[in-house]
Amino acid sequence: MPQTDKQVCIPPELPDLLKQFTKAAIRTQPPDLIQWSSDYFNAMARGEAPPVRERTDRVPLSNYAELTPELLKVLHQRVGGRLIIHVDELAQMWKVLNLPTDLFESIMNVGRFTEEIEWLKFLALACSSLGVTIAKTLKIICEVLSNENESGPARIPFSTFQFLYTYIAEVDGEISASHVSRMLNYIEQEIIGPDGLIKVTDFTQNPRVRLE
User: Fold this and answer.
1) Which cellular compartments is it found in (predicted)?
2) Which of 3, 130, 147, 203 lies in the 20 to 30 Å Cα band around 71?
């Protein structure tokens, strides 16, 4: 059989390994991602604890503001509804809000963004640094994107939720595409009303909706 016909075998432990690495990188926010990655995998190979900053032991940054959903909402308002934003402009907005530069660089690296950034993807990864789970991350995103003038729980268009959930699941790497598809189909057919909007409670309090 020709070499090109052979099936590529993916090591079963690879998806979980990459998922844990990605989460560790976002949580730790190393200033030098390449060096930190080398230290991370060398520690894993030696059976030692990798250099990961836990959520409970963040080093206070006296010169920077802590990232919060409120600051992300301000940033989203300044982006002004654009789908694409240039890295220099976004970096300047980030700097004006006095947010950590290493976090910005970490999000850029994880998202593999270049000069033209898809804003919603960047926002999703920024929210994931605050959310412990995918559901929590999507809850934060909904709160950031939701119109302040609307009464009741935060809500966004289902099409936006669909895009963001699919993207976050791809970055996470552990959730199958078929599971994502089943959840989105169920939400669209059984939950979404004529207004086409999804509320936070639709995916956080419904026992049939399991995003992970």
Assistant:
1) Cell projection, Cilium, Flagellum
2) 203
